[in-house]
Amino acid sequence: MIEMKDVQKMYPNGVMAVNGFNVRINKGEFVYVVGPSGAGKSTFIKMMYREEKPTKGTILINGMNISTLKDHKVPFLRRHIGVIFQDFKLLPKLTVYENVAFALEVIEETPENIKSRVMEVLELVGLKPKARMFPDELSGGEQQRVSIARSIVNTPKVVIADEPTGNLDPETSWDIMNIFEEINSRGTTVVMATHNKDIVNTIRHRVIAIENGQIVRDEQRGDYGYES
């Protein structure tokens, strides 16, 4: 599903954020990406959905070489990847329903399909009763649920989450993780960068640890391995 071969990323200021990554993530895996702040986790994540391009090496997503992908084809790539951020990135003037529907409107789905699919994912994340509310009327946890619904509404093969529980209280974080577990159980590959030690150590999955731009640990059912 995701493969990196000898991937390197150096920023214009000379910082080597990623150095010699060789990673393979298979279909249906759930992978935590952990490590200290500034280790290269966000760069690793951003390269998967082509927010950043590698300086060297090859990145394959579902067999597509995104390292050399033309910029005008990046939106097509992102139709197959759901991305979830720490700060939600919702459109404030759109309702919950409209925020989620927007992801289908841009790929010109039919109104009938949009309605049925949006209500289906809002049911999954527990927000169907709040479909007509606006983001500023929701709690942080509810806004993150909207973000998750938007990311999965077009049934992506991969969901990439960058610190999705970073701004949430512990109880809400566990609720969000339950949703990720459900998404993964349906066959979607999940890659999640996190600093949440308790989640990683409790809900065990594969752990990729990054330090100073290098992968220092890659373990099935691994633990967090750092002081939180």
Automatic annotation (TrEMBL):
Its main location: membrane. This is Cell division ATP-binding protein FtsE. GO terms for cellular component: plasma membrane. Pfam families: ABC_tran. It is found in: Cell membrane. GO terms for molecular function: ATP binding; ATP hydrolysis activity; transmembrane transporter activity. Part of the ABC transporter FtsEX involved in cellular division. Residues 2-228 form the ABC transporter domain. The keyword Cell membrane applies. PANTHER family: CELL DIVISION ATP-BINDING PROTEIN FTSE, IMPORT ATP-BINDING PROTEIN. The keyword Signal does not apply. Gene3D superfamilies: P-loop containing nucleotide triphosphate hydrolases (3.40.50.300). Belongs to the ABC transporter superfamily. One of its GO terms (biological process) is cell division. It is a peripheral membrane protein. It comes from Oikeobacillus pervagus. Homodimer. Forms a membrane-associated complex with FtsX. Keywords: ATP-binding, Cell cycle, Cell division, Cell membrane, Membrane, Nucleotide-binding, Transport. CDD domains: ABC_FtsE. It comes from the Bacteria. SMART domains: AAA.
